[in-house]
Amino acid sequence: MSSVDLLERPAGKVRDPRLICTFTLALVFLAGAVAGALAMDFGVHGHSRTVSFDTAEGKALYFERMQKELNLTPAQSEQMKSVLEDFWQYYRNVLSGGKQQVEQLLDAEQRRKFERMLQQSAPVSNRY
Fold first, then answer.
1. What pLDDT sits at residue 71?
2. Which of 7, 33, 61, 83 is the most buried (most CB within 10 A)?
3. pLDDT tens digits for 65-74?
């Protein structure tokens, strides 16, 4: 086969540009999904996570922010600690009461599943 034969042969079946575009977009989407999953797995997003305000760390961070941004006096700081502790206690009571109300609606199997859901989603210090 000579080079002239190669030049004279038809290039083959012409591909549908819509199909090529769809395939390319699908590949780009999948590559983005994989990159996002890897970023989540490796904790790249970890620096943007907020700490739950009902944890010891969250309470401390929230209180420090209040002190700094509001420029609280020592007397105000002590009073603020007391008010925030009352709020956090109220918050825990509301969550606990809500949990009890939900549990009353459920049968035994549903309560077990509900408890597993809470264990999987709540921080260790926030579990009831």
1. 93
2. 61
3. 889 999 999 9
The DSSP string of the chain is --HHHHHHS---PPPPHHHHHHHHHHHHHHHHHHHHHHHHHTTGGGGGPPPPTTSHHHHHHHHHHHHHHHT--HHHHHHHHHHHHHHHHHHHHHHHHHHHHHHHHS-HHHHHHHHHHHHHHS-GGG--
> Are 77 and 94 in the same domain?
yes
- To which residue do tokens 């009890």 refer? 100
The count of domains in the chain is 2
Q: What is the domain extent for residue 12? A: 3-45
Kindly give, in sequence order, each residue whose CB lies less than 8 Å from that of residue 58, ignoring residues fewer than 6 positions away: 51, 52
